[in-house]
Write a structure and sequence with these properties.
This protein is mainly beta and 246 residues long. The protein is built from three helices and eleven strands; from the N terminus they run ααβββββββββαββ. Strand 3 and strand 4 form a beta hairpin.
Length: 246
């Protein structure tokens, strides 16, 4: 589960690295773990308490005989609690670093976000993971693509994973961890080009990510419809093994 992004310059200007900090590393306490088998599929059901945000999280992984996995993430909020917005609602996973080729159908070819995507057009794109990283002066969130219908993460031989859902979603693939791009409580005079790469490909797949704002860089939040207020959320997507012949 993933609720955090490396704060952008606009996020810092609004103090969101502090105001939303409870979502950075919330402790998940496992409450139950169960398995069911039905029609040739195995489903793992887990339930967690997240005391820091007064919420419960339910995760399920339905694995079919042909290797497909349906992932479902559900957050139930305590409506009486006062909890800040979150940066994103999604999942994060690591793939091998050589899974560095991307084919996708969604908005592109450059990075785009829910409130900054009108100039990027829905189409079929082929890119590399290296192309996803934009070297802003200071390291921060980068590389996300929105309105994705499907996304394939492949190695040179054409083997890898396909991600898709019955609703559009956002996704990114970088050779950097969120932690490596995060300046913490305050901005540091680091430069993006000097951040060391991870030895894996970091995939972030989101139901939604907060907008960038970009109204000004000294306190303005994204407009209301692009913020992710505390509440109930649910997201399901598929992971399917693929092997292309090139």
């Amino acid at each position: 589960p993933n609720f955090w992004r490396a704060p952008t310059d606009n996020d810092f200007g609004a103090g969101l690295q502090r105001k939303l900090a409870v979502w950075k590393n919330p402790v998940l306490k496992l409450v139950s773990l169960e398995k069911t088998i039905e029609n040739g599929s195995v489903t793992i059901h887990t339930a967690y308490d997240i005391p820091a945000v007064s919420a419960k999280l339910f995760l399920s992984y339905q694995v079919s005989g042909d290797g497909k996995i349906k992932v479902t993430q559900k957050l139930l909020a305590d409506k009486s609690a006062k909890v800040p917005d979150m940066f994103r609602f999604g999942m994060q996973l690591k793939m091998a670093k050589d899974a560095d080729r991307i084919e996708y159908y969604g908005r592109g070819p450059f990075e785009n976000y829910t409130d900054r995507n009108n100039s990027s057009f829905i189409g079929l794109y082929k890119q590399s993971v290296e192309e996803q990283f934009y070297p802003y002066i200071r390291p921060q969130e980068t590389g996300t693509k929105s309105d994705i219908r499907w996304w394939e993460q492949l190695n040179r031989g054409g083997s890898g994973l396909k991600f898709y859902s019955d609703t559009s979603f956002s996704i990114s693939a970088l050779h950097y961890s969120i932690e490596s791009l995060d300046d913490g409580w305050d901005k540091h005079q680091r430069h993006s080009q000097l951040v060391p790469q991870a030895d894996y490909t970091n995939i972030c797949i989101d139901k939604v990510q907060m907008g960038l704002g970009c109204i000004d860089s000294w306190g303005a939040l994204p407009i209301e419809k692009y913020r992710i207020h505390y509440g109930d959320y649910e997201f399901s997507f598929m992971i399917e093994p693929v092997a292309h012949q090139y």
